[in-house]
Write the structure tokens for this entry.
Amino acid sequence: MCGYSKHCRVVRQCSDYRSDPAAFIATLAEVSAEFAPAVLYPLEDVTLELCLANPDAWMPNCRALLPSMNAFNAARDKWQAVCLARELGIPTPRTVLVESPGAIEQLAREWQGPAVVKPRRGSGSRGVRFVENPSDLADACQATGEAFGPIMVQERIPADGAGLGVSVLMDSDSRPMATFGHQRLREYPTTGGPSCFCMSRRDDDLSARSIELLQRMRFVGVAMVEYKEDVRSGRPIFMEVNPRFWGSIGLAIASGVDFPLLYHQLALGLDTPRVDEYELDVRYRWLLGDLLHFMASLKRGRCQWGCLRLFGRTIHNDITLEDPWPFYGMIREALFRIVSGEGR
């Protein structure tokens, strides 16, 4: 939606990077040569991977602070990340890598309790299936495997636990230059998705563990390490690493950690101070997502009336009087997807 912002000077459309990555890279090379932007900001896993694989398309004309392909793969590979976290003593859910169709049947016979089926590589909630009954596990594994390739099965941590995140900016030598913690208060989709209401928090032990994990990967750039609080033990359980900018980054900025600016300065080799202090209990809201959360809670018979509170001590992600047009653009794009059938 940034193209609707009054701060955006030029908008260039490119081919869909998923269906035609070669055309996307060609457009990136053209834009890089024409405008010579100072710094490159890949915002999604797929575009980051394409930029890492095709440095000649942008590197002659702009700078970036990106991980190596090995470090990126170590972070994006959920199985590899879980194994490394376990090696470092970070609590993880029971996790099984499913490597063959025969393994699915055996796992389905032996598994007890609710489970989560995930693609081994992926971002967000794409391909994630929640299984309450072990008798449905084989079908869920087969469906996810056919659509997304290699999969893994995890113990499902009770949904009542808080979702926690530690965001980190690592310099070119994998040294932490900024850290920030937040807690999810609501999310959409309600079964697991981006934060629609969250607040800043601090947990120095969790931050230290997250930094150690990223340093073992020799990670460079921005990443968010996700955890889920297990209400049975009170411990944060490692979930995954998102090796890119995250959706609720505005909360960090509003709390005093301007990750995009710090990334920009480091990419250009400017003197950049380390930032670890920030304001706590700042609340941040994605209005449209929160309203969708409310409608989903109605269907489940668990009304979240706080979703309807439009004012108060909350910073909004998608609507501001200072720059209102991105909110209009988001509604316009959502309606277009519904009418065209893309959002179904």
Q: What stands out?
A: DSSP finds eleven helices and eleven strands in the chain.
